[in-house]
Amino acid sequence: MTEEQYQTWGSGMGFILACIGSAVGIGNIWRFPYIVGENGGGAFLLPFLVIVASFGLLLMLLEFSIGRRYKLSIVSGMANISKNFKWGGAVIAIVAFAMLSYYLVILGWILSFFISNAAQSFLDFDQFTQSYYPILSFFAVLGITFIIVRRGISSGIEQFNKVGILFLIGIIVPLMVYAIMLPNATEGISYFLEPDLTKISEPHIWSTAFGQAFFSLSLGSGSLLTYGSYLRGKHSLIRSSSIIISANTMISIFAGLMIFSFVFSSGMDPQGGIPLIFDVLPTVFSDMSWGFFVGAVFFFLLLVAGLTSAVGLFQVPNASLQDVFKISNKKSSVIIGLALVAIGLPSSLSYSAVDLDLFGVSFLDGMDHIFGIYGITISELIFVVIVTWFVDKKKILEHINSTSRFNIPPIAISILKYTVPVVIVITLVTTALT
């Protein structure tokens, strides 16, 4: 038995906060509001909330139950179901590693913008990416993530998330209240929440909501299963999952209210993705009184949210190395850290003075397209098929329903077994055609 298998969460609350941290990332702050606004506002929120509260909850329970049942990493856990499925766990671990490699680059940008605002200077994104600062900031956030994970489960990951999530909530609430009180903020709130009921019947809205649910809850990355493997003793998975999903959704909605209030209060058109964070919002902050302070607080919020997710992604391949090769956490974290330097450096170079691209597409954008859009969805498909088709339904339900007042019925697993693979395939096809 490896050093990592002896490690457990120090408390149930530590486990919950770590899982909230894994789920809540920079995607909740910038991707979720953009997706909602572009897909009918409140008309998108309804399908999203329905999917999160049904399929999202069941899939999260499935990952936690397998983690707690086998008490192993994603690779060893899948191999325990059948040696033939070891490849499935390896694919999921590789996807998590690949996503982290470029996620750290974006986190580095956020760190740089935080430092710039704190120093009362506004960075221009184009000038920033034509320098070598993106490379330096990538190494900085990689170092921070490495240090946290290297300290272990209870002393590193749990302690960081306990502080980080409380900081995150303590920042986003007052920042949201400040934003919605700005002039013309109501226009942004309407853009975000006002339902366009003509879109609610469109299949694309539902497939997009399904994909966003995976992205938002960190499903398919293996991080929830990995965190579940460190659970010991009596702990209600249903109660924990409900808290995690509620907190994650609440933070996403707060972020939408905050960001669109900022954007519309300045009379600017909302844009999606990276430009919203690094081009539009800095301009908004520069026109505000106390803009440097508001900008610094905002980017610190993003940094904390991003680091909590990065730690979860790091632990997936890290725990897998420990299980498969029977090595310590210190050794495995060094190996993963060095591998991230090798794979993440090209992504950092793609938005820098080097301007690295591959076949006319920046390396980072290519990685995000392959792993961030398709990879994580395929990973969840692999996981659901292996678990629902080849693990005894009764044994899954034993771990889900133990110590819980409410029991998940056997038909829920059957629904996942037959429905989720079909919906995932539809989501992948829809995404490819749009």
Description:
77% of the residues lie in helices and 1% in strands. The chain has 434 residues and is an all-alpha fold. The protein has a single domain (4-433), classed as Orthogonal Bundle (Hydantoin permease), CATH 1.10.4160. It has a two-stranded antiparallel sheet with strand order 1-2. A hairpin with a 2-residue loop joins strand 1 and strand 2. Helix 1 packs across helix 8 and helix 8 (153-180) packs parallel to helix 12. The longest helix has 35 residues, at 291-325. The radius of gyration is 21 Å and the shape is globular. Mean pLDDT is 90; it is low at 1-5.
CATH class: Mainly Alpha
Please, how many helices? 18
> In percent, how much strand structure appears in the residues?
under 5%
What best-fitting shape do the alpha-carbon axes yield? globular
What's the domain count?
Answer: 1
- The class by helix and strand makeup works out as mainly alpha
Can you summarize the main beta sheet?
Answer: 2 strands, antiparallel
Detail the poorly predicted runs. 1-5
Helical proportion, percent range: over 70%
C-alpha Rg (nearest Å): 21 Å
CATH architectural group: Orthogonal Bundle
List keywords for this structure.
single chain, 434 residues, mainly alpha, Hydantoin permease, two-stranded antiparallel sheet, 1% strand, disordered N terminus
Task: Chart the SSEs and their pairings.
Layout: H1 12-23, H2 26-38, H3 42-70, H4 74-81, H5 86-118, H6 125-129, H7 133-150, H8 153-180, H9 185-193, H10 203-217, H11 223-228, H12 237-265, H13 274-286, H14 291-325, H15 329-350, E1 357-358, E2 361-362, H16 363-390, H17 393-401, H18 410-433
Antiparallel strand pairs: 1-2
